[in-house]
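User: Let's play a game. I give you a shape written as tokens, and you guess the letters that built it. Ready? Here's round one.
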């Protein structure tokens, strides 16, 4: 069993002659036994500091870190039964891959036969048997990263900590190593905490994802829940490529329906305003926001081209194509409708060119609404 619990964890860095910098702010989070939890957020959000606090490499300003109910506060890193894999691999250049993997076990004075057994097992698991005699300079980037992971595996810790281990690899190796880490998690059945700034990596790896911004936890949920039901404007905009389009406007009644209408500000209707009818479920949810400002969010895949007059006219807009980015199986279409900019993701089978006028249908069943004051999702 390896359950990690953070309670009101706080870390404030004191800068000589400057203002205190809160890197982690009152963070409470539970990582369940055998779970792969991903900490994700932009650079400087506090995710690596959180990992270092769990490992004991940083001393917290407040709060507690506990492992299986035992507080880790004041316990040295070597006594926490955790293993950490760093972004830069941190291999000894003068030692072979075998010696790098075995290094921690030798320090703990394990018998030679046990060391050899564990190193061979880890090397077999990660496909490193042919590389054990080579030094880091003779290994590829992916092999060096696997050696770093093997060094952590041989210790057989209760918890693995990964600090952006794939950040320095090229795109194809990142995909390969993501698959390796997922397979490793299933095979070892241990608790893993993985830090990354890459939202694609987070969605691909995590059983659950914890999103951070400026040291504050924003949302913890499964990958699909984060994508489909973001808790606030930041989470909605962070996940998705291209990101979600946000439109500022007001909920207004039109006949028996409720509509969203774009506005410039101070209640002024924008020139060539976009007006979109809300679906029945959204209308019930947004009824109390009649006449109030809201932010509508729509993902690029929820905008489609109108075909032969199909699609409800009160959920359709006219827009001009500004830019077309061919992405292989799909195209990212950047459009303008008056002063409003938006992005659609369309199949390459839809021929689209710059300066073309398109009729676009919004799938309002999948629209998101946010409070412009608090940025919280309106549910």
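Assistant: Ready! My guess for every position:
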């Amino acid at each position: 069993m390896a359950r990690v619990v953070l309670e009101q964890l706080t870390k404030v860095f004191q800068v000589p002659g400057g203002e205190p910098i809160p890197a982690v702010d009152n963070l409470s989070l539970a990582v369940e036994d055998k779970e792969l939890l991903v900490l994700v957020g932009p650079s400087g959000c506090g995710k690596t500091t959180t990992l270092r606090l769990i490992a004991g490499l940083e001393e917290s300003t407040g709060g507690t870190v506990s492992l299986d109910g035992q507080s880790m506060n004041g316990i040295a890193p070597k006594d926490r039964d955790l293993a950490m894999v760093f972004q830069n691999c941190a291999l000894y250049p003068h030692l072979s891959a075998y010696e790098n993997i075995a290094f921690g076990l030798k320090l703990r004075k394990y018998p030679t036969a046990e060391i050899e057994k564990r190193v061979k097992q880890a090397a077999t698991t990660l496909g490193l048997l042919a590389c054990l005699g080579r030094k880091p300079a003779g290994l590829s980037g992916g092999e060096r990263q696997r050696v770093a992971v093997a060094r952590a595996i041989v210790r057989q810790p209760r918890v693995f900590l990964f600090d952006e281990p794939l950040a320095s690899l090229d795109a194809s190796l990142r995909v390969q190593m993501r698959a390796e880490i997922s397979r490793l998690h299933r095979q070892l059945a241990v608790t893993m905490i993985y830090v990354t700034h890459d939202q694609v990596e987070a969605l691909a790896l995590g059983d659950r994802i914890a999103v951070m911004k400026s040291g504050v936890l924003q949302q913890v949920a499964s990958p699909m829940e984060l994508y489909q039901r973001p808790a606030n404007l930041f989470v909605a905009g962070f996940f998705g490529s291209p990101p979600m389009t946000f439109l500022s406007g007001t909920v207004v009644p039109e006949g028996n329906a409720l509509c969203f209408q774009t506005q410039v500000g101070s209640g002024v209707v924008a020139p060539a305003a976009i007006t979109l009818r809300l679906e029945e479920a959204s209308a019930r949810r947004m009824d109390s926001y009649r006449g109030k400002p809201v932010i509508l969010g729509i993902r690029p895949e929820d905008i489609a081209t109108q075909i032969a007059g199909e699609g409800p006219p009160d959920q359709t807009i006219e827009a001009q194509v500004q830019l077309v980015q061919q992405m292989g199986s799909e195209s990212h279409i950047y459009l303008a409708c008056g002063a409003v900019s938006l992005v659609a993701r369309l199949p390459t089978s839809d021929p689209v060119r710059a300066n073309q006028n398109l009729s676009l249908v919004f799938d309002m069943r999948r629209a998101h609404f946010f409070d412009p004051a608090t940025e919280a999702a309106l549910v």
